[in-house]
Design a protein that fits this description.
eight-stranded mixed sheet
């Protein structure tokens, strides 16, 4: 009996100990810290990726533009001569007859092409300046604002009225001085094709920004301005996009409201600075030691349109001992498309920027390309003129840029 009792006691004790053991393990699991499982699976977890910076970020200017030496200057600089109007800034002549403004600008471009065999010019991007056209711009913007239409409608109206572009180019090998309008083309850097992003010069931004952007609108030169004999070799000297376009000179950004000025300024700052940086590289490639006079002609223009409000911007180089130190984006003028006088001011800026683009800018880019190609003894390149000469209306922009070029 004793042995049986002992067996029973032992058996019951074993059962109690087993039950107690299970309960203890259960309590141990339920009271384990909630972070414990992460250690077991941490080796298989994917680390979080850092989001890229965008122009919509509130700190974009501080964390992306300024570390690259890109400054947005909204205050007018009296030294630019822009406060008294477009023609004072460009040191150019106002069209004597507003109804014949397109013909007037064509004659200026023809003057800059003296000596060329084929002075064929596409003057379709120059705008009329007569009262009827000005009124049509006023009426259009009034309707867009009154109806509260979205941004694409503002863009469409602007493309139809103010920023003219034709993508159908006549076939043939002949030369033609022309610009091509782009709409939301990618500006993503491509080192192998000679399109680079402005570098970070100071600091270390937490978010990456690769200039993978799509500008609302830009105007590019077309390689039809180049001699057919060496046109095909251009790709070895400068970045070429669709339709043979290269070296953009004018960037435009839109917003349908007036409560997001920061974003639209960031947009044009990004598009304009990468365009200027690559123009800088072309100049440096053509001439490792450009003079200050040559640097003066390396600039870019921008325009922001917020609902009916507009602002014109100049992108000018910052150089330290001849090396890129960023750029300044300076506001030249501003106005509204609800005022007749200010609409006329906007039209004059657009026309003068295109005149500068087709005369000064185009010829300087062509000469840089010719200078690079002339290093190849097998290519026949026509005589290279002295940069900055015999081109009308270049004094004011050159003066503007000179104040920013610095030496160490």
């Amino acid at each position: 009996m004793a042995s049986t009792a002992s067996y029973r006691d032992t058996k019951s004790s074993q059962l109690r100990r087993a039950a107690h053991s299970k309960m203890s393990k259960s309590e141990e699991v339920t009271t384990r810290p909630p972070t414990a499982p992460s250690y077991a699976t941490s080796s298989t977890q994917t680390p979080k990726t850092v989001k890229n910076a965008t122009v919509h970020d509130a700190d974009f200017e501080e964390t992306q533009l300024k570390p690259r030496g890109i400054e947005i200057v909204t205050l007018w600089d009296p030294a630019l001569n822009s406060s008294t109007g477009t023609y004072a800034y460009f040191n150019s002549q106002e069209p004597p007859d507003s109804a014949q403004s397109r013909e007037f600008y064509r004659s200026l471009v023809e003057e800059s092409l003296k000596g060329r065999v084929e002075p064929d010019i596409d003057d379709s991007l120059f705008l009329p300046m007569d009262a009827g056209f000005v009124q049509s711009v006023l009426t259009g913007h009034h309707s867009l604002g009154q109806e509260g239409l979205p941004e694409p409608e503002f863009k469409l109206f602007a493309f139809q009225k103010l920023f003219i572009g034709h993508h159908i180019l006549a076939k043939g090998a002949g030369r033609q001085l022309r610009a091509v309008r782009s709409v939301e083309w990618s500006l993503k850097p491509n080192e192998s094709q000679l399109w680079r992003a402005p570098p970070i010069l100071s600091g270390n931004p937490l978010k990456p920004f690769g200039f993978d952007i799509y500008s609302d609108c830009q105007f590019w030169l077309c390689n039809r301005i180049l001699n057919p004999r060496y046109r095909a070799h251009t790709r070895h000297t400068v970045y070429l996009k669709a339709l043979g376009t290269f070296c953009p000179y004018f960037s435009i950004e839109f917003k349908s409201t007036i409560d997001d000025t920061r974003t639209v300024q960031n947009q044009v700052a990004a598009a304009g600075s990468i365009s200027l940086f690559n123009r800088y590289h072309l100049k440096l490639y053509a001439n490792p030691l450009p003079t200050s006079e040559q640097w003066k002609l390396v600039c870019h223009y921008g325009l922001t349109m917020e609902k009916a409000n507009w602002a014109v911007w100049l992108f000018e180089l910052k150089l330290v001992n001849g090396a890129w130190a960023g750029c300044k984006m300076r506001r030249l003028d501003a106005g509204s498309c609800t005022d007749e006088h200010e609409v006329l001011g906007l039209i004059s800026w657009i026309n003068e920027i295109h005149r500068w683009g087709l005369c000064t800018y185009a010829l300087e880019c062509e000469e840089d390309i010719k200078r690079i190609l002339s290093k190849d003894s097998k290519l026949r390149v026509s005589d290279i003129r002295v940069p900055g000469t015999d081109v009308p209306g270049t004094d004011a922009p050159g003066t503007a840029v000179s104040g920013t070029i610095r030496s160490g």
